[in-house]
Structures are given as C-alpha cells and as structure tokens.
Amino acid sequence: MTKSNKIAVKRIAVAVAAVCASLAMPAVAADNKAMLDLMLKKGVITQKDYDEFVNANQDAEENKAFKEKRIDQDLAKANAFLQKNADSGSVMKNGIGIQSADGANSIQLTGRLHMDYRGYTSDATTDPYQNKFDIRRARVGFKGQFMKDWKYEVVATLGGKDANDGLTESTTFVDVAYADYAADPALQFRIGKFKMPFSLEQLTSSNNIDFMERSLAGQVEGEVIPAKETGVMIFGSPMSGLSYGIAASRGRGNKDAISDSPDYIGRIAANVAELTGNKDVVVHLGLGLSTGTIKGSVKPASARTEARDSDKWFEAAALSGQTTRKRTGLESAVAYGPYKAQGEYFMIDYRPSGGASQGINAYYGELLWNITGESHNYSNTANTFGWIKPSKAFTGKGGLGAWQVGLRYSNFDATDFTSLTAGTTNKANATTVGLTWFVNDNVRFMLNYVDTSFGSAVGSGAAARTGEKAVLMRGQVSF
Predict the structure, then answer these.
(1) Are 23 and 53 in contact (CB under 8 A)?
(2) How many CA atoms does the CB half-sphere of 431 hold within 13 Å?
(3) pLDDT per residue over 84-135, tens digit each?
(4) For an engineered disulfide with 331, which of 21, 188, 286, 439 has Cβ 3.0 to 4.6 Å away?
(5) Whole-angstrom Cα distance, residue 90 to residue 347?
(6) Each residue of 194-223: pLDDT tens digit?
C-alpha cells in the first residue's frame, strides 16, 4: 500500500470514528446523517455498515425516550398517591389515631398518668394520701370528629379496688363525655358532661396547670367553682382573641325536688393584645358568672389543701332552706416571652330562704418564668394556656428540655360563716413554690413546696394543727 493510500485510509477511519461518536450522542443531527450518506456514496462504508449505524442510533433514541416517559409516569403516579393519601394514615400529627381519606371522620387515642409522692412535716392525721406514692390521675379516652362538623370526646378515670392500690379514686367513672356541633367556630353547641365555662385555672387541663394542684379555691370543684358537670352549652370564638360560653348544668349533688332547676353558667374572655393587633404579648381578661338554687341541707365546705391533705378543713353548718347561690370570677393574666403573671378573684354569695346572706371570697396570684426561654402557649380561640413546648427536647444526646420556676399565693376567706363543724376553720392561705421540667412534648416532672396556714386549729387532740408544710413530686406522661 502506497503512502498516499495509507493517509487516505487513516482519514477515512477518523471520519468513521467521528460519525460513530456522533451517533453515540443523545441525538443525531442532520449533517451527521448527510455525512453517512456521502461516505456510502463514495464507497467508504458498505450499505450494511450504514444500516447498522442508523439502526443503532434509532434504538438508542427510542430507549432514551422510553426511559424519560417512564420516569415522568412514575413521578406522576407518586404525586397522585401522596395527594390521594394526604388525609389518611394510622398516625396523626398530634397523637395516635386514624382518619378517613377525606378527613371528615377521625378518632384519636388520649391518655394521662400522673404519679405523685407527697411528704408532710406533720403526719399526726390518718389522711390516706400523705407520705406515700399515689397515682393522682390515670385516664384513657378518645376524641375526634365525624361528618366533619361533629366533634366528640370520651375520657374515663381509672380507679383501684381500695386505697392500698395507690389510686385517688376507688372506682372507674366517666370523667368527660360530650359531643359538639362545630360547623361554625363562632357558634358551637355541646351536650354531655364537660367543664363548665368558668375560671381560667379550672379550664386549664390538669396536664397543663402551672403547679401540681390548683389553688385553694380551685380545689372546691362544683362548690366554689363550677367544674365538670352534665349539661348543655353554646360557645364559640367570633374572632381571634375572643371567646364565650353559656351553659345550663344540673349541678353537683346539691339539688332536690324543690331546687332541681339548672345552674346557669357563663364566661367571656379575651386577649386584649390580640384584639388590638399586638402579637408579642398576651393580655388576658375574663369574667365568669353563675347562678342557681341548691337544697337547704348543703354544707358549704372546702376540699383538700393544695398539698391534698386535711379533707374538709372548712365546713359550715347546713344552709337554712332552699338557697340561691351566685358565683362570680374575675380573670387576668399577662404573658410576655418566658414570663407570665396570672391571678383570679372569686366571690360566692349564698342567699338562703330562711337566713341571712353569707359569702366566700377567694383569690390567687402567681408568677412564672421559663428559665430556658420558651414562650407561654396561649390559645386565642379558647382563651386558656397550654403546654410549654421545649425549644430543644431532652433526648440524652443533647437538649435540656424546658425548665420553669413559679411562685403562687392563694387565699380562702369564709369568715361570714361562724357556725362551723368542730375541728374546721373558715380561713386559710397557702404559698407554693414550684420547679417544672418539660422533658419533651409528652413528659414533665414537677417539684412543689407548699406552706399552708389555717385561720384556727384544724383537727382535734394530737392531730390539731394551725398549718402544714409539704414537699410534692410528680412524674407525668400524657398524649
């Protein structure tokens, strides 16, 4: 082969290689096809080579188009699946539950366990709840909605066979059970057993109260403060920062055939800051009113102290005849960043048909500071405070959770009642210091020190005392 022929062959090989390389690219341009045609015409490549090159490129193009089409189809199917199942699943955002695909029906499991220990400086009494471990609350329930506009909740409190089980209650009973028609947030209806619309502290869940127990007035559920009772209610939130509730209740065991009319209970509350457009602070104001009749044999009385000792440290003589009972509650709170100040004042007026009017005045004031900086959780639709959400939950691998300290002073004055059951008093006050650790969104630990003073000696003989001091501890799990 001559030198010129060798050069020609090399040029042809380079041209063929260039064409082959171009065929391997994602698309074949028209000039590459023209080059192949020219090479076939000049005899550089055979018809067989020409057909193989073109067919190979067509196959590559078809495979690429098929792959792209399949990827697009898979993405479309995945998006459609996610959209279709966005409202379904076994685990809901805020708990364990299920809901229908359209989101109109749901059911969610709820529960709480409060495990306490209480130690007193005075153990002269035989109170079964002092100096021991106690399951303060053990509740399970479920809540949800059906047909979108109807909501419901049922909760049972679990009890033991006897006091030795360490349970506060001796029997299992329905704690709350109600159904709402909630199509319009501004105008809703409720029937069943539920918390009456009265008192900021009482309407705050036991999972979220600032101290282990409510104030002295808050201990007297159903007497000083309306609590969980059976009835009907109209309530709602016409705008963010404003709420109301008006209920009719059958009361708590203080009725008879003569005075068996409902108690009428109402509350209006507002976050003044929210209503004026200030999102940085909470300025809460509320008013609660209640009126109704109770039977003459009722003895106005206290429940336990804030340390849950000394059952009925106050008990007056029985009311003389059917009695009109009016209750008024004033609420206030200011929360700014990690700080909160809260207080309430209660006035209870008894007007018996056969005697002079008598009354009870009670109040509390408290200061809270979230040491780790978290803000106080406030609902602008219910006008109540909720759980402190840690900015960094404790996991064992970092994060401290949320830490809070608090101080509360409460006072109970029933000095209008001068005829008392022996061994009781008509006045008391208590100071509570608290430290709370919010581990995460479901767990917290609490340490309280409570110093209570009575207006006069409570108890008799060796058990008589004018006050008590107690250290309380709680481990709490709720969901």
Answers:
(1) yes
(2) 4
(3) 555 555 445 556 888 888 888 999 999 999 999 998 876 545 566 667 888 8
(4) 286
(5) 48
(6) 999 999 999 999 999 999 999 999 988 888
CA distance 294 to 292: 7
Beta strand residue intervals within 93-219, DSSP E: 95-99, 106-120, 132-146, 150-157, 173-184, 187-195
Torsion angle of alpha carbons 222, 226, 228, 231, nearest 10°?
Answer: 110
Closest CA to 368 of 388, 338, 345, 332: 338
- Residue 82 has a pLDDT of 53
- The alpha carbon dihedral of 205, 206, 209, 214 has a sign of positive
Q: Using CA atoms, how far apart are residues 245 and 186, in angstroms rounded to an integer?
A: 11
Assigned token pair, 198 = 């009265």
460 vs 119, 185, 274, 283, 456, CA distance in Å?
Answer: 21, 54, 52, 46, 11
| Rounded distance between C-alpha atoms, residue 352 and residue 192, angstroms | 30
| Distance from C-alpha of 401 to C-alpha of 390, rounded to nearest angstrom | 5
Positive or negative: CA dihedral 36, 40, 45, 49: positive
Residue 140: both structure tokens together: 């399970």
* Tokens coding 294: 């109770």
Burial of 251 (0-12, 13-18, 19+ CB in 10 A): buried
Task: Tell me the three state secondary structure of residue 130.
Answer: coil
How many Cβ atoms sit within 10 Å of the Cβ of residue 7?
Answer: 10
What pLDDT does 240 receive?
97
Give the whole-angstrom CA distance, residue 169 versus residue 444: 23
- For tokens 């109970």, the residue is 412
